[in-house]
Amino acid sequence: MGSLSIKGGRPLNGEVNIQGSKNGALPLLTASLLISGKTVLHNCPRIKDIDAMAQLLKTLGCEITFEKNTITIDATQICDTHCPQKQVQAMRSSIMLLGPLLGRCQSVRMNRPGGCVIGERPTDLHEAALQKMNVRFETAPDTITAYTEKLKGADIYLTFPSVGATENVIMAAVLAEGVTHLKNAAREPEIELLCEFLKRAGAKIRRIGENELEIRGVKCLHEVSMKVMPDRIVAGTYLLAAVATKGQVVLRNAPCRQMDSLIGLLRQMGAGVLADHDILYMDAESAYLPVEYVQTQVYPGFPTDLQSMLLATLTVARGESVLEETIFEDRFKVVPELRNMGADIREEGRRAYIKGVSFLRATHLTAYELRGGAALVIAALAARGESTIDGAHFIERGYENICRDLQCLNAEICLQ
Ligand code: UD1
């Protein structure tokens, strides 16, 4: 298990290419189970979460090959619908196997993915929606067992626009009998990507207004290839790191149109941002203003996955900011580590009150989860002196090579 060593205190400067999206690729991997043949995904990030999902698909019978950033999944032979405990519990997104396995094999058994450090993470919305589609669940505290004689289209209203539940319903509905209307569906860009992927494979999906989807079941899907879009959270991480260090950066292959909420906020902080197709230019030399109030929201609001990184950046703004987390109940785990660096943060329920300090102190830090780990990288880049961050494997779950990328931006960072 590695640690990162970072010499902070100098502005990020340079150009970096943005990797493919983790949350875009993961549902496409699970959706490949619906296709009795090959799925080819280009621009797939080489990260731990994708490796873990690929392993899981292998245990179900898929053949998988990786060549650079192209992954090929051959799901012609699915021999098992029992997802092994170790892999399911290692990765929360294994819940996204429910819809595809029910669609392809009419049954699934897995351990409950369970809570994680950022919050409880229940699966009630997934289960309630699938029950409406003629799925029966056997309830047990630790396992999810579900089966159906035949998936049936249904009218479903999600009480919260959960990303994962929306993806599961879509994946279950494409091969179901009849029509599914999904209301209050999530509208994150990753949902659009999944719909586009399935439509290319022959599914019939139509968006009705902003929050509703209509899915007409078809008999089968055919082989498909798709390019995974760039990762908006990785792009946001590097922009926030540049603000924290008052740098000037260019992001290539950036998902500019998916980043409006962050770009608006960066401008409020004083950064000059220019988006030109998939290139994003940012001058953050005078981006030191605090943010009066910002809350995390579902898309197109400010993403919860960037909350910790914004928090780290605001610790060195000139003034007080208020940041509210509305999606996950326990996502301020990084605060004690930031305080060890001299940050002035007060937590009150789901709000963090951040008083900017003139500098952070380099120190020995520990990452406990993916995005909190990325936030510590930002803080260490802004701090004077050399910091080490243990738990680098958490960061590797979502960043292909954070050292390579930040070195492109002239940072002194390496994995030890
Ligand atoms: C996905 C993303 C994750 C991101 C999150 C919110 C992937 C692989 N992960 O996670 O990075 O942080 O969206 O944008 O794409 N909830 C329930 N019951 C349910 C399901 C969810 O109460 O059955 C609650 C959750 O506890 C949470 C909120 O809904 O408070 C949002 O969760 P959801 O949108 O489902 O997130 P994920 O799909 O797990």
Walkthrough of the structure:
This protein folds into 2 domains: 3-19 and 230-415, Enolpyruvate transferase domain (UDP-n-acetylglucosamine1-carboxyvinyl-transferase, Chain), CATH 3.65.10.10; 22-227, UDP-n-acetylglucosamine1-carboxyvinyl-transferase, Chain. The chain is an alpha/beta fold and 416 residues long. β4 and β5 (70-74) form a beta hairpin. It has helices at 22-31, 48-59, 85-90, 98-105, 124-132, 163-173, 189-200, 232-245, 260-268, 307-314, 335-340, 370-382, 392-395, 402-408; strands at residues 3-8, 13-17, 38-42, 63-67, 70-74, 82-83, 107-111, 136-139, 143-147, 155-157, 179-183, 204-208, 212-216, 224-227, 248-252, 272-276, 279-283, 294-295, 320-324, 344-348, 351-355, 364-366, 385-390, 412-415. 51% of the residues are buried. The radius of gyration is 21 Å and the shape is elongated. It starts with a strand and ends with a strand. α8 (232-245) runs parallel beside α10 and α10 packs parallel to α12 (370-382). It has 14 helices and 24 strands. It has a 4-stranded mixed sheet with strand order 22-23-1-24. The chain has a 4-stranded mixed sheet with strand order 2-15-17-16. Bound molecules: uridine-diphosphate-N-acetylglucosamine. The site of uridine-diphosphate-N-acetylglucosamine (UD1) has 21 residues, from α1, α5 and α6.
